């Protein structure tokens, strides 16, 4: 494994180096600003993270064509943490301490983020995290450009309750921290809206679960109580394909029991025949099918970069686009890549998102984004059926007892978990 | 019959008196169809139906299938063979008006379409369409369709269609508070006879203002259906268990040969399954590109190829690596683990990390009802396939010379060698056979799981569990082991949940192995000491 990894790293670094050398030969001798890319290129998470590495390389190349940042060229440093959580921490240390990168864009799973947190704190660097996550966190060194639960889960539930008149809820997820926390928040939210406990069914399955027969027929049974039922799915990664296949085979149509998913995007649908899934939903802050000039330009650029007309774009990619643009602006504002100065400069920075709005970095290190609900179309893309205005990301959920009094504020309070009731920093 | 005449007379009267209004409402409907808003589309459907527009059925059907285009004031129906018709008149269009986009749908619109098509299809001459329409009405429970349903019932001659229509009528009546109480009681009975989940859902949605007699009948019907469904559910769980067992059997049976017969701990076994699945993918790609007519046979074509690919890779691994490690289980384990990682990453590099789409041939899609049992075709075929593979393997081992040699080598390697059997060649062939069977499993699993580089990983633990539990070196043990674990898992799952169920099963196996270290069916004789 380690031989493999090293080779990957060398390859990645060589590739990045070659890109820069190729386009800017005269600049090669100059001093560069290094940007770390910490995404798994092998192992189970490679399916999702490889494209994020590519999108970062593309953005960096693009920025260099515009002249780089602060007059210096950017240099990408790619490492492969190989879907191995402890290795994420090691690679992060390598990026910051050895390669002296100015900022890191990376991680996908919450476990990997938690694994690198201590490293970023200890060595004081900046991490941009591009994936929707369970919230309940606001760290000085991390900038969360993906959705917090109130930017994805809660608006999706609101949509179902309002548009589909759903009264009974199945919360189905993979058994790990993101679905558990999200479902806890959703359960509290639904109960606060007057949904009785017997109308909520919670189900967890192991990673990579492939035999969905029992659960799908349970959902069918739960849905036959005479009330409109919907499934809120936090099922992760590979388990989705057999889940949707089973739904299709057992004849559960979106018009009967719609499924709204938080982890199914354009990439995941690439492996399934989507015709039986017509009308099932997903909630994200971005869809490839959004028709804005910014998005069309981005898709064109991405397809050209991948040299493939079939290349798809997705939500975490957009998060990196926004995050990278914000970082560039912050560095220019701070006139330095010094982590402390960049961290102070970031809140308040605005950057256009790809769905026609301007996202803003908030004091709690989350950003504002619109919430989009899309229905699966026959071609594996999403048809946007609902779009909200910009929603500010909550680091701490307002639905949970332990966190509703907490706010993250790194501008005035210099604290990630400030308790507004007691007026003190630090915990509930 | 008089009712029908009355209805026709009514429609005619409405049509004559409201001719002008109808034209207006049709205009409004077409404007709304072009408005690109779901609520406007919904209203347009209502207007088309209410105005009895002559093209309503064609338009709504096209809308349902995404063939209705609108833009620049024009609404156009695209026929299935790609011709363009003016939606208003049904006349063919010479040229395509500019700026056309498909009218978009969401679930709300789709439900309305279903209901509308239900209403339109109730009097369709095609029996299957009438039944489908009745089902649609059963779901939409559109009160305004009640007269049409009654007409349809009185004209219906087909018993199945009649039953479906009666059920649709019952579903409407039960929610209709001003219907005669006697009719509503009869409706409860009709639904009780139907006796499935949907009937249960309909019964449970009885409005709260029902009379005590009706409520009582409803409660009894619900209890009756629930009892029946609970029974069916047990059968269903057994069926699911059988299905899971067949998947486990397929995944493990190749391992039963390599691990069971040869004693090689082959961690790359899962990757042989993956290679089989990717072979299926390639076969389908070629078929899609070159011979689309053969798609339904793609799996049959993929089977021998998958067997060959996985078998040859297996033989290469045995000759190249494992041969040198016989009698050193720990090194074998590490070496095959390494091979498994190499194969995974090789496939990831060659095909990309994302899932690949393997389509299901027509005969493997969908489900059918057997009593209260919903059986999906793909699972049924996998069970059949697993049984066939098992029988074929048994036959090879028992009836062919190579099978005889394999058994001889297993039972006593030195003695077999002394009898002139080339044990090295037998080893390679045995390993190839085991790997080839794993490749066959890959073809089947591509139908129910992801075709991704990680496919094999998820099955390797389960496979070892089955082989160890069933008894090493015994195919019948593997069969019994796979079915026992599958059924136990599925019977536990509804109570304990998928995660706890799996844990419980693992604990059970650990305890069982303590008691019987050689599994369910232990081999006796010299092999044990060898």
Automatic annotation (TrEMBL), chain A:
Keywords, alphabetical: Signal
NCBIfam families found in the cross-reference section: urea_ABC_UrtA
Signal recorded as keyword: yes
Origin superkingdom: Bacteria
Pfam families linked to this entry: Peripla_BP_5
Organism: Bosea lathyri
InterPro entries according to UniProt: ABC_urea-bd_UrtA, Peripla_BP_I, TAT_signal
Residues making up the signal peptide according to the UniProt record: 1-29
Protein name: Amino acid/amide ABC transporter substrate-binding protein, HAAT family
TrEMBL record, chain B:
Keyword annotations: Amino-acid transport, Cell membrane, Membrane, Signal, Transmembrane, Transmembrane helix, Transport
Membrane topology according to the record: Multi-pass membrane protein
Presence of keyword Membrane: yes
GO MF annotation, one: transmembrane transporter activity
GO biological process terms on file: amino acid transport
GO cellular component: plasma membrane
The keyword Secreted is assigned to this record: no
Span of the signal peptide: 1-23
Record's subcellular location: Cell membrane
Chain segments annotated as transmembrane: 238-265, 297-317, 329-347, 380-404, 425-444, 464-488, 495-513
One Pfam family per UniProt: BPD_transp_2
Matches recorded under CDD domains: TM_PBP1_LivH_like
Family: Belongs to the binding-protein-dependent transport system permease family. LivHM subfamily.
Protein name: Amino acid/amide ABC transporter membrane protein 1, HAAT family
